[in-house]
Amino acid sequence: MSEYSDSYLISRIRSGDKVAFQELVNRYKNVSFSLACSIIKDEQRAEDVLQDAFVKMYKYMPTFRENAKFATWLYRIVVNTAYTALEKEQKQRLRKGEVQGKWEETAEEVTFSKLRQHERKKYIQVVFKQMREEEALLLRLYYLGELSVKEIQEVTGFSASKIKVGLHRARKNMLAHLRNEMGDELKHLI
Amino acid sequence: MKEESIKRLVQESEMQPSPDFMLRLMISIDETEERAVNFSWVFYLAILAFIAFVVLAVFFIQRLNHTGQFNGVSIRIPPIALRMGLVLFTLFIGHYLFLLREKIKIIQRWASSAS
């Protein structure tokens, strides 16, 4: 079923085909999960967010307009669900008297020394955990989701200039993080 | 650094949910469907409200025609204008009722076929 277009799968889902739903989820789950991880730095919680987002997608499928791009619509659901979960989490932390959710906290949990040198994928994922959620999200939407600036605007609600500046800053920060942690090894990576 | 290298680096940051993710998702979907509610009553309620409104409007217009005045002000509406007004009003509301029925049908079809 992997050769079918998104719109065909959507019409199948609308007539109750769960196999089509699974196919569509398989097609988008990795990018969507990466987006959720950009905002929610904990993988387990990001998975819960992703599950909520896909349930919402299934529930609101009848309201999806055929002329819209499915990926943009889905990523908007994922990003909104993740930000709502993050907000809820931060409120709970504040109530408990903890410091407001900082990405540094989770980033500290993972140390580069634990990783072996050849695990480049892990290196990069760790760097993404250390980056600010907004920057990680923009990079992944642009390079992983392959969305245009206009589509990222639709997903995030940010202005075009904010996205462009954010992307520029994110690229610089990603490289700075990589250079910090890997030093000369970065040359082999790129 | 070239744009391509950054793209490749970001693409390597792609993550995968755990293998049992799909199973948990499908269980969650099944639970959602069980909670699905039949709400065709919204449409019937709208029709009832519309009929009640039309009956009241017709009654009011007939009374107006009979007395020829409203709150002491003399009113004379040509019968043809009244009929035209009623037809246009019915078409206008009917159009919205039709749209409402279509929306409900889509959601009902989806909910019933999914369960």
Give a quick rundown of the structure.
The complex is a heterodimer of chains A (about 190) and B (about 120). Chain A has about 190 residues and is mainly alpha-helical.
Secondary-structure map:
The complex is a heterodimer of chains A (190) and B (115).
Chain A: H1 6-14, H2 18-39, H3 43-59, H4 70-95, H5 103-109, H6 120-130, H7 133-144, H8 149-156, H9 160-182, H10 185-189
Helix pairs in contact in A: 1-2, 2-3, 2-4, 2-7, 3-4, 4-8, 5-6, 7-9
Chain B: H1 3-11, H2 21-34, H3 41-67, E1 69-70, E2 73-74, H4 79-114
Antiparallel strand pairs in B: 1-2
Number of helical segments with 4 or more residues of chain A: 10
Number of strands of chain A: 0
Greatest contact between two chains:
A-B, 41 and 29 residues
Proportion in β-strands of chain B: under 5%
Structure characteristics:
heterodimer, A: 190 residues, mainly alpha, Rna Polymerase Sigma Factor, Chain: A, Arc Repressor Mutant, subunit A, 2 domains, 10 helices, globular, B: 115 residues, two-stranded antiparallel sheet, 4 helices, elongated
Describe the structure.
The complex is a heterodimer of chains A (190) and B (115). Chain A is mainly alpha-helical. Chain A folds into 2 domains: 1-99, RNA polymerase sigma factor, region 2, helix turn helix motif (Rna Polymerase Sigma Factor, Chain: A); 102-190, Orthogonal Bundle (Arc Repressor Mutant, subunit A), CATH 1.10.10.10. Chain A contains 10 helices and no strands. Chain A has helices at 6-14, 18-39, 43-59, 70-95, 103-109, 120-130, 133-144, 149-156, 160-182, 185-189. Chain B is elongated and about 85 Å long. Chain B has one domain. Chain B has helices at residues 3-11, 21-34, 41-67, 79-114; strands spanning 69-70, 73-74. Helix content of chain B is 75%, strand content 3%. Chain B has a two-stranded antiparallel sheet. With 115 residues, chain B is mainly alpha-helical. Chain B is built from 4 helices and 2 strands; from the N terminus they run H-H-H-E-E-H. Classes of the chains: A mainly alpha (190), B mainly alpha (115). Chain A binds chain B through residues 14-16, 18, 21-22, 25-26, 29-31, 33-34, 37, 43, 47, 50-51, 54-55, 58-59, 61-62, 120-121, 124-125, 127-128, 139-140, 142-144, 171, 174-175, 178, 189-190, and chain B through 1, 5-18, 21-22, 24-26, 28-29, 32, 106-107, 109-110, 113-114.
